[in-house]
Design goal:
The structure is a homodimer. Chain A is an alpha+beta fold. Helices cover about 60% and strands about 10% of the residues of chain A. The first copy, chain A, has a three-stranded antiparallel β-sheet. Chain A starts with a helix and ends with a helix. Chain A binds a DNA duplex (30 and 30 nucleotides) through helix 4.
Amino acid sequence: MEQYPEQLDGVFHALSDPTRRAIVGRLGKGPASVGELAKPFDMALPSFMKHIHLLEESGWIRTRKQGRVRTCAIEKKPFAAVETWLSEQRALWEGRTDRLEQFVTAAQKKGKSR
Amino acid sequence: MEQYPEQLDGVFHALSDPTRRAIVGRLGKGPASVGELAKPFDMALPSFMKHIHLLEESGWIRTRKQGRVRTCAIEKKPFAAVETWLSEQRALWEGRTDRLEQFVTAAQKKGKSR
DNA sequence: GCTATACTTAGCCAAATGGAACAGTATCCA
DNA sequence: TGGATACTGTTCCATTTGGCTAAGTATAGC
């Protein structure tokens, strides 16, 4: 149930940048190449790549290079980590831990598969 | 439904530090003074205060000074903001937006008041 | 009034972040 | 083979972060 705190550091830090949230948002609709992802942003590619790397290191995306194209896809585990943290907090301020398990399980069923 | 993106920057950034997550966790159990909050941390007070200020600016806590004691309490709005973002993402990858409203409403009912 | 308490303000520092430019490398296609 | 495409590696830069110390202010209590 508990997350390794250092992991959460990265998970949340990744979301603190609008470019990265946008990337996660875009990948929610399906995988895409770095080039595709970069197009909407007025930013040099190397700068953009830093965000891609950070997202990969923090676990939000996974990437695979085939030929000269690197394809990116979303990872769902971090969402669960964030949800777990949220529900732990709610459990605290509601003063009862029994709802914790309930809430997480329900949330993950909505998010369904992996 | 949409959040102002700059607000989300701060909301997530605040959570990317373990000290700040711990403070939020502690305040989930009820209000506390800066001194009380700082006790568990092996950190100079001015350093600790920076975290308090950042949490206040990002909206996670509200503080009030009475006499020489500043008391801190949790704010619940940012939780809703995070939950909204999460559910928007889920809605995306589930390919249907109709569940979005549902999920948020359900989640907020669990978090109840405020 | 004096002293201890509870922050505050100010300034310093090393490391990390988020951007840039420029020059590679590795494929793909004609 | 030769050029265009899609990254990648390297280096640079200003700003932000997260910590520190030292000194200051404002109550609270005796």
